[in-house]
Amino acid sequence: MTTVYVVQHGEKERLPGDPGLTARGREQAALAAKALQNKDLTMIYASPLRRAIETAEPLAAACGLEIQVDARATERMNWDGSTPIAQFFEDWTATTADRDFVPAVGDSSRAAGGRFRDFLVEQENGDAAIAVAAHGGVTVDLLRTLLGDEAVPGRLLREGIPSGAITTLDGLRVKQIAAISHLEGLESAHRPD
Fold it and tell me: What CATH topology corresponds to 10-183?
């Protein structure tokens, strides 16, 4: 069964569209790379959004692998500035509360979790290990799809996945959710996606 390490992208710049990582986010990405560099990874994937690719870059360099971009690891919603930020947050809250709510821009929680799950099913390759630089919302959507809402910690629904955290799966079986021990030493401020 394929082991999958889902890496929450590092802290991003607070800008609309496709922002990159902050200096702290680059530190988080480097620490995630250090934590995973000896896991015998065979593939490294990233969402096409800049913050995910920048998170995958240190790991790809450490492992001597190229980053494969796959849109199925993209966030359920991405604020591009075309709608007021208040509307974006209102839609985000609605997609969290009602998994079938379809926002003006983006996917429902159920659709996002389903596409990420389908991506992982496609990656099944025996005893391989892969890493995926993704986003907090779609990772929570995946966990809700795999475990059911009642099994997902409420803090993740409220606050999101911490920047730089690693969620580990064996195939579609969740082994560890949002591990952050590799980030020790960084200040504890958490800014979800």
Answer: Rossmann fold (3.40.50)
